[in-house]
Design brief:
Blueprint: H1 2-15, E1 22-27, H2 32-45, E2 52-60, H3 71-80, E3 84-88, H4 91-98, H5 104-123, E4 127-129, H6 134-148, E5 157-160, E6 165-168, H7 176-183, H8 200-214, H9 218-228
Parallel strand pairs: 1-2, 1-4, 2-3, 4-6
Antiparallel strand pairs: 5-6
Amino acid sequence: MQRIEGYIRRACDLYGLIDPGDHLAVGVSGGKDSMVMLRGLWGFARYSPVPFTITAVALDPCFDGQPTDLSPLEDYCRQLGVPLVLRRSDIGEIVFRWRQEHNPCSLCAKMRRGMLHDICREIGAKKLALGHHRNDWVETFLMNLIFEGRIGTFSPRTYLSRKEITAIRPLILAPEYLIAAAARDLPVVKRRCPMDGASRRQEIKQLISDMDRKYPGFLDRTFGAMQRAGLDRPAGS
């Protein structure tokens, strides 16, 4: 976990993710990425030269109309002494049963983000920490290129003017393999999403894995090229 905290600190220094006195809403699903981010931010907050506080926020889409057992997450937050705001929703029913979306991941993500932003405003958090990491950044770039024919990906820090909230990604520099290793000691909750393992993102994950085997270092070189091209900077900066 020390290495994860190191990546978080580097990302904060490089991209100015945290300002003095920030109250961060830490988006947690119970999955490996968000749980490692929560633990990493909790650890980093204890010695950060920039003081900040965190509140964990969890949104359950209730896939198949059933609530997810998030008691491991609740217990872990109590263990850390981190406040947790947990909301159940009907997003799963809307996306998969009522709308029967052809591309359900896009609508699901949009609805979840909207609800998380509303929770941030309720608890007075001006920043929302999301668990996207280095691999996610490269995957999103390739998805946009292959499926939409455009150059772009998400930014480590994005101001959302409509909600007056800033989305930050403290794990942006951390590789997925290291996050997976750190998650072995955490109470990770198994995903119940019907699209798990069958999405376009999973196809891109496999593509990157194949390219990395054929051309060792493909992922890291792509990541470096994206940084050198300035894709880690907000548009217009």
